Amino acid sequence: MFLVVTKMAIRTPCTRSLLRILSFGLHSVAAADEPTITATVNDLCRVLSDFRSQNHDLESALFPFSSSVSPTVAEQVLKRCRHLPSPSHRFFIWSSSLPSFLHTPTSHFVLLDLLASNRLFPLAWTVISDFHPHFSHSNSFRLLFQAYARASLPHDAIRAFRRMPDFGLQPTIDDLHHLISSLCHQGLVIPAQEFFHEWKAEFSITQKTYTLLMNGWASVRKPKNAQYLFDEMLQQHLPVDVSAYNSLMAAFCRGGELEEAHKRFQEMRTLQRLEPNAGSYAVFIRSYCEAKDVNSAMRVIEHMKMHDQTPNVFTYNAIIKLLCEKEKADEAYQLLDEMIERGAKPDIWSYNAILALHCKIQEVNKALRLLSRMDRDSCLPDRHTYNMLLKMLIGIGRFDRVIEVWESMEKRGFFPSASSYAVMVHGLCRKKGKIEEACRYFEMMVDEGIPPYPSTCEVLRRELQRLALGRRIEVLVDKMKRSTSCSIQKLSNAMDANQIFEGNT
């Protein structure tokens, strides 16, 4: 079998990579009967990254791992390779064919989600069909509703709903709500309401159904349409709750009819005897934030405190963002402290909004102190956090801090992607005397098997040409050609000045 696979590998564009993986796979099986899950997952993810093209012999590259792939390992690989939909699908099919192998339900949903999210709908339907009835579940179709809606394909989302009985699933009112919510969330309210009127006789419609549609009309700023649905709900003698009023008020607020929204707020309290909740106040806060009226937004916050209501994280974040836009950092920090005191745990958006202000006005120490505070508050930085920090530090020439932040990434469990490397390479290329550091980070990216952006290759190549460092370009091109990543091998042409010159002659 080894000789057969090796001959197959010679015809692939990744011969060196495949031979390396084959030798590693046979060695690992001989050296250890049960390699650690982490090591196996890392190796498999590298294989999927290296063999991402359709014409790559991925199955042969996966063969050495046949005895070490468990359902748990497969699940972790799929979760980590969400950016590689086609190789992930091929890995899923390959592992499914292994003797006595059965994927976990989570693996099925992860694969289906990444295929649908990347608009590979035929493959998504193949997964549903091929693994029916083992993985037949309403959640599979709900993933399709969301993906089709994000792709602005409302009729395909509705068609998926209609096809549920073909897979032994009778749609429920919850499935109906997921479809309507998915469409409305993407502003596809007209097809959502048309579908609702066509199917409402088939289900026991509740006030929640109307509320979802009113939220949709609020998102597209059509308060009159929301009012029509609210009146229809009353005609159907459905109980009116706070959520329905909140949706109606949100529609008036977003439609610029703030006075009408206030009238509905009073009507809810006096006529319907309903006590407003945090969401009732939030619709007004978001409206004031959109209007850049920070004083009115803060007055509503104070009013909420008087009624023992706590804003949720999204409401707090809207005000924090507005305060930072107005460069009121002290007030933003006060709200951050208040969030914690009142049990509304800040998220990454809360911190990044303040960090963006520090980076904008180049407050290095405050930015780094905020990063340390995130550690204390158990909020992990994301790529936006690091990219903002690195871009600012490079821009003002604080290279000592750049190294400090970069080295702290791995300690926090964050591994830089192409975007973070691009920040480093692009920024360093613009700094006098930092071309060698730019090359070093580019080489690190290549060594990690992370394909750089074509623009990153171009920026670095042009700067090296400007400095008459043609030999350095050759070294980088050679390293890229020797990479185990086929994508990086192909990108070597974007770095090779000679090929570019020949192509233009």
Automatic annotation (TrEMBL):
Residues 298-424 form the PROP1-like PPR domain. It comes from the Eukaryota. Keywords: Repeat. The keyword Repeat applies. InterPro entries: PPR_rpt, PROP1-like_PPR_dom, TPR-like_helical_dom_sf. PPR repeats lie at residues 137-171, 206-240, 241-271, 277-311, 312-346, 347-381, 382-416, 417-452. Belongs to the PPR family. P subfamily. This is PROP1-like PPR domain-containing protein. It comes from Dendrobium nobile (Orchid).
